[in-house]
Amino acid sequence: MSGGEEEHGPDRSDYQEFVRMELLLEKLKLLNYEEEVVAQHDLKPLNRHYFVRSRYLPSNPDEQFHMFHVIAAWLINTAGRSIPVPREDDDPIATASSILAELRALGVKVDVPPADLLQGSGELVIFVLYQLAEEALKKTGFSFKRPTHPRESTEDEFMTEDKAELTFDDEEDEMSDEEEEEEMDQEAVDPAEWALEVERVLPQLTAPIQTGSQDWRSHVDQLHQHSGRIDSSLEQTRSFLHKLQEDISHSMKKLSSRETAITSQLQHLIQEQRDAQAKKTDASERYEKATRRMKDRSRVMAEVNDNLREVKKRMEEKGRSMSDEAPVVKINQSLVKLKQETAEMDVSISVFQHMLLQARLREKHNMMSDMSASSPPDRAPEPSSTR
Q1: Three-class secondary structure of residue 94 per DSSP
Q2: Residue 48: predicted pLDDT
Q3: 161 pLDDT tier (thresholds 50, 70, 90)
């Protein structure tokens, strides 16, 4: 998985979708998804073409999107991030947006709209799950290693002996002295034992002829072999595809005829549904108008209620002021006090008038006394009238 694949998104090849889905399924099996997801959520195990979008494969967008949501949430949590547990009432757009956001947070560059994931299948869905599986495997510490092939000891011996035979001619001159010593040793060996040893070792001394990688004859032979295999496989595949095409054509005809029959049978129901939809739209418009009028009248009623509360408040204040008897009591008390003071003033005035009258009488009496004393005796004073 290269960085260019992460930057530019999933591959657009038709066959790549099938290959990527099979690789995704293998990675999910490595993560033990059958026990972690399938068993816990009571789901069916995935097949190797489950998320592939093709007209030759059955599809169920709701079921596939739910499976995609469950597996993506599990992979995100396994990769070290946190996402809520999937529920059936989750918003699909919000769910797809959150999954893409978590994928970007894990360092994978992907720039696609969330609506492309709503079908629950296709190359984008496989790409997202594949990248999440990669991150989950990294988090768990799993890594793929190159296979190690065990080598047999006999092959090493054959290669050593072959190399020895190939270099024997070059070293023949240098080993002449050693050969003389070996000939001397062979004279001391029993011929029967030597023959048995030659029979035992002779099969191992046969050097296989190995053709080089640049030999064009071997390439031509391989091309002919592969061409024959392709021709034989092509005949079988062609017959299978021809039969598949006939089956699909027959099924499409059946579906078309059934669709036409169902459409003709349900035409009146469709018309009734359209009429009901139009009535619903009209009723919705009337309801909106009535709602606006009710809001306006509610606002007017609220203003009238405010004014009414203000008038009631003022009336209550007036009533409290009119029913309050304290000022009247004070006024009565003031009147009583004023009457008392008036009576006292009348008494004082009467006393003063009496004293003034007495003073006047005494003064008049004194004047009369003085006048009688100064007048002759033969004339008696005239009596004065007093009131």
Answers
A1: helix
A2: 83
A3: very low
Q: What is the rounded CA–CA span in Å between residue 25 and residue 71?
A: 11
Contacts with 43 (C-beta within 8 Å, 6 or more apart), sequence order: 37, 67, 70
- C-alpha torsion angle, residues 51, 55, 60, 64 (rounded to 10): 10
3-class DSSP string for 219-280: HHHHHHHHHHHHHHHHHHHHHHHHHHHHHHHHHHHHHHHHHHHHHHHCHHHHHHHHHHHHHH
Task: For residue 161, report the phi and psi dihedrals to the nearest 5 degrees.
Answer: -70, -35
In whole angstroms, give the CA distance from residue 40 to residue 86: 13
**Separation between Cα atoms, residue 62 and residue 118, nearest integer Å:** 8
Q: What is the pLDDT of residues 256-267, one digit of tens each?
A: 888 888 888 888
What the block records as the tokens of 210 is: 């190995």
CA pair distance 135, 129, nearest whole angstrom:
10
Tokens 């061409």 belong to which residue?
227
Q: What are phi and psi of 56, to 5 degrees?
A: -90, 0
User: How many whole angstroms separate alpha carbon 34 and alpha carbon 45?
Assistant: 7
Planar angle of CA 6, 7, 8, nearest 5 degrees: 100
Output 347 or 377, whichever has higher pLDDT: 347
The token duo for 120 is 């629950």
| CA 64/CA 66 separation, integer angstroms | 5
**How many angstroms separate the CA atoms of 81 and 106, rounded?**
8
More confident of the two residues 188 and 249: 249
The per-residue pLDDT for range 109-130, each reduced to its tens digit, is: 888 888 888 888 888 888 888 8
Cβ–Cβ contacts within 10 Å for residue 70, how many?
18
Handedness of CA 106, 108, 112, 117 (dihedral sign): negative
Q: What is the mean pLDDT of residues 326-352?
A: 88
From the list 1, 5, 16, 24, the residue with the least C-alpha distance to 109 is 5
Residue 5: pLDDT band with limits 50, 70, 90 = very low
